[in-house]
Specification:
alpha/beta, about 350 residues, 10 strands, 10-stranded mixed sheet
C-alpha cells in the first residue's frame, strides 16, 4: 500500500536515505490507493515520531474548506491498529459530511507490546499526529476532539490526563482506567487473553514483579486524570459490560469519573460495587431523564461534576456514535462543558454500531 511521507519533518540524514529509497523504487510517494473498508477520501500517510524518530502511520482526511476547521482524532481499539475498519469508519463519515479534518493514528498498534498499551511513545505519537495536522492543515485549535472505544477509550482517558491542553472535548466509551485492576479481572475466564496482553506490555505479572506493577501504574489513566479537571470529558459504558455484554467492567468508568470529579460529587465505593453486581441501580435511586442521543439505549445512571460526566446506559461493550459525536461538536476548548444539546446531527450515510474492542 502506498503512503504519503512527510519529508519536511525528517532529519537531514533520514531524508537523504528516504530519497535514495524512493529513487531505487524501495519507497514510493502515494497514488492515493483506497484503504480497504474506509471511504475513498481517507488516505494513509506517515509522520515523524518525536519519541524515537521512526515513521509512524495514520489515516487522514483533510477538510475541503481551506479556512480553519475542527479536527477529530479517532483511536483504534485494544487489538486493532490504524487500518481498523469497524465502527471507527463512522468517525470518517461524520468528518466527510461535516467537512472536518480527521485522523486515525496507529499509536504503536495492538496493545501487546511494550511500545503500545499506554506507553510514553503512545502519548507522544498522538500528540505528534495532532501537531502534524496543525502544521500541514488549517485546524481550529479550539475544536480538536478525541474519541475512542474500549482500548481507544483507555487511550482517550490517558490523553485527557497527559495532554489536557489540546482537547476541546474527549469522549471515552467502555474504557479501561486501571491496567492492573483489569489484569486481575481478566486472569481467568473467556477474556484471559487480555491479561496475557498486559503481561507482554508491562514485562510480567504485576503481582509478582515490581517493575511490571510500576508499568501498570504508568499506563493507567487513573494516574493522570486529576490533571483533566479542565477538560470537557464524557465517559460512557454499557451496564452489561464486564458481565455477559463484554470484557471491561463498567466500574472502570465510574472510578475514572471519581478521579476527575470534585470530592462532593464522587460516587461511593459501596454504590459502585452494588450497581455493578446487580447490573441495576440500588433500591431508591432515581433514574435520569431520557436522552434522545442514546436512541433505544436508555440512560440508567448519570453523574455530572463541572466539566466531567459519566453515563451508564442499557447496553454492552459498545459505542453510540451518534451520542459521542454530537456531544463533541458542541464543545470548545477553554469553555465550560455543554451538557444540553439544542440540535442533533444525523449522518446521511448508514451508521454502524458494530461492537468494538476485540
Amino acid at each position: 500500500m502506498n503512503t504519503r511521507i512527510d519529508v519536511s519533518a525528517l532529519s537531514p540524514s533520514t531524508a537523504i536515505i528516504l530519497v535514495i529509497l524512493i529513487g531505487s523504487g524501495l519507497a514510493k510517494e502515494p497514488n492515493h490507493t483506497k484503504i480497504e473498508g474506509w471511504p475513498e477520501q481517507v488516505k494513509e500517510i506517515k509522520y515523524l515520531a518525536s519519541a524515537d524518530k521512526s515513521l509512524q502511520s495514520m489515516l487522514l482526511r483533510a477538510a475541503s474548506d481551506k479556512s480553519k476547521r475542527p479536527l477529530l482524532v479517532g483511536l483504534h481499539s485494544w487489538s486493532g491498529d490504524y487500518r481498523q475498519a469497524g465502527g471507527e469508519v463512522v468517525y470518517a463519515r461524520w468528518c466527510i459530511e461535516k467537512d472536518w479534518h480527521f485522523i486515525h493514528p496507529n499509536f504503536r498498534g495492538p496493545n501487546w507490546t511494550a511500545d503500545a498499551c499506554g506507553s510514553n511513545k503512545v502519548v507522544k505519537d498522538i500528540v505528534d499526529a495532532v501537531a502534524y495536522m496543525k502544521r500541514k492543515h488549517q485546524v481550529d485549535t479550539d475544536r480538536i476532539y478525541l474519541i475512542g472505544v474500549s482500548g481507544g477509550g483507555h487511550a482517550s482517558l490517558l490523553m485527557a490526563g497527559r495532554a489536557p491542553d489540546i482537547w476541546a472535548g474527549v469522549s471515552a466509551w467502555v474504557p479501561i482506567s486501571d491496567i492492573q485492576a483489569w489484569w486481575e479481572q481478566k486472569r481467568s475466564g473467556s477474556h484471559s487473553k487480555y491479561a496475557d496482553h498486559i503481561e507482554k506490555s508491562v514485562g510480567g505479572r504485576p503481582n509478582e514483579f515490581e517493575g511490571a506493577k510500576r508499568e501498570c501504574v504508568k499506563r493507567s489513566p487513573l494516574t493522570y486524570l486529576d490533571k483533566a479537571v479542565e477538560v470537557n470529558l464524557d465517559i460512557n459504558a454499557g451496564v452489561t459490560d464486564g458481565h455477559a455484554g463484554g470484557s471491561v467492567p463498567f466500574t472502570h468508568s465510574l472510578h475514572a469519573f471519581n478521579r476527575v470529579a470534585a470530592e462532593k460529587d464522587r460516587i461511593s465505593r459501596g454504590f459502585i460495587d452494588s450497581f455493578y453486581r446487580q447490573q441495576a441501580l440500588p433500591a431508591g435511586c432515581e433514574e435520569p431523564e431520557l436522552d434522545s442521543l442514546y436512541g433505544n439505549k436508555n440512560v440508567l445512571f448519570r453523574k455530572v461534576s463541572e466539566n466531567t460526566r459519566v453515563t451508564i446506559f442499557q447496553g454492552k461493550h459498545e459505542i453510540i456514535h451518534h451520542a459521542g459525536l454530537n456531544w463533541l461538536a458542541c464543545q470548545r476548548r477553554g469553555k465550560p462543558a455543554v451538557w444540553t444539546l439544542e440540535n442533533e446531527y444525523h449522518l446521511k450515510t448508514e451508521e454502524s454500531e458494530a461492537e468494538s474492542g476485540k
